[in-house]
């Protein structure tokens, strides 16, 4: 739940005031009087928040929104960050990537303000390549460098608890993000799986417990899009909620992340500190035990930090 009705909120939607929610687990509290919005997911093996299909009033398309902004800029053109977005939209058009890149966040639903970020998404391998080319255009987006690195560290440190400055910056530089050349707004792009991707179509998971460990990334091929999957080899178990955790070590073969913060963040050979759910998964490319990172937890912060 990204925005929720609040009389003191600083965003306006449908002639009502809304407050931005950046912490997924807070949705459980916000929806406390809507138990029908708590759904058990067989794929994830846990309870998540969801909306009954009959309650959906408007469906927003990220790709269509980007196209609409190009054709009818409206109030976007009156906003400093919006002007930067319009320049980026032109860059997307020049690449012929309108079908591969979209806009999400506040510009998707129309509640942006002068403090808004530009949140983009790209789809599949073609979208990922187009986004890399887009972020390589220094006249539109400049990378985080020099003094800006402190800004990036402070932005991410609250989500990547326990990570050192150097390790966090190395991890973050692998992702599609930067600052607009106009207003200096943060801009990022989350690579999503292609529309026809069936990687998780027949996957089911069961939660076993929680575990914190050190592991080596063995394969990052499926880690470049969200949900990201990395092959891992466990080197040490640091903490566990289950008895005799050592017996699981050699049987844990992957980490699956529904947290966009870790998409594209790791490469084969990296050592990472993982803290998440131990799950047993069946179906598709995932069979056996793995560590799962989801935002739908309220007892602990699930993280994946690069170790240098």
From TrEMBL:
Residues 88-140 form the Polymerase nucleotidyl transferase domain. InterPro entries: NT_sf, Polymerase_NTP_transf_dom. Keywords: Transferase. The keyword Transferase applies. The keyword Transferase applies. This is Putative nucleotidyltransferase. GO terms for molecular function: nucleotidyltransferase activity. Pfam families: NTP_transf_2.
């Amino acid at each position: 739940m990204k925005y929720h009705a609040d009389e003191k909120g600083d965003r306006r939607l449908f002639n009502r005031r809304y407050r931005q929610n950046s912490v997924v687990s807070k949705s459980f509290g916000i929806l406390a009087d809507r138990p029908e919005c708590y759904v058990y997911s067989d794929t994830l093996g846990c309870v998540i928040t969801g909306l009954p299909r009959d309650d959906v009033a408007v469906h927003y398309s990220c790709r269509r929104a980007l196209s609409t902004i190009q054709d009818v800029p409206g109030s976007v053109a009156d906003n400093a960050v919006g002007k930067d977005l319009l320049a980026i939209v032109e860059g997307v058009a020049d690449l012929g990537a309108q079908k591969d890149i979209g806009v999400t966040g506040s510009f998707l639903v129309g509640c942006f303000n002068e403090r808004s970020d530009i949140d983009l998404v790209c789809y599949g391998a073609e979208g990922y390549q187009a986004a890399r080319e887009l972020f390589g255009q220094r006249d539109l987006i400049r990378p985080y460098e020099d003094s800006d690195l402190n800004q990036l560290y402070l932005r991410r440190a609250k989500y990547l608890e326990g990570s050192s400055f150097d390790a966090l910056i190395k991890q973050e530089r692998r992702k599609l993000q930067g600052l607009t050349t106009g207003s200096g707004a943060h801009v990022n792009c989350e690579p999503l799986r292609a529309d026809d991707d069936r990687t998780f179509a027949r996957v089911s998971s069961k939660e076993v417990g929680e575990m914190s460990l050190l592991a080596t990334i063995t394969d990052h091929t499926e880690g470049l899009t969200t949900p990201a999957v990395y092959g891992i080899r466990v080197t040490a178990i640091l903490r566990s909620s289950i008895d005799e955790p050592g017996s699981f070590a050699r049987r844990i073969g992957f980490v699956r992340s529904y947290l966009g913060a870790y998409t594209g963040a790791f490469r084969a050979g990296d050592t990472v500190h993982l803290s998440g759910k131990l799950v047993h998964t069946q179906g598709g490319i995932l069979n056996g035990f793995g560590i799962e990172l989801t935002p739908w937890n309220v007892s602990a912060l699930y993280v994946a930090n690069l170790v240098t």
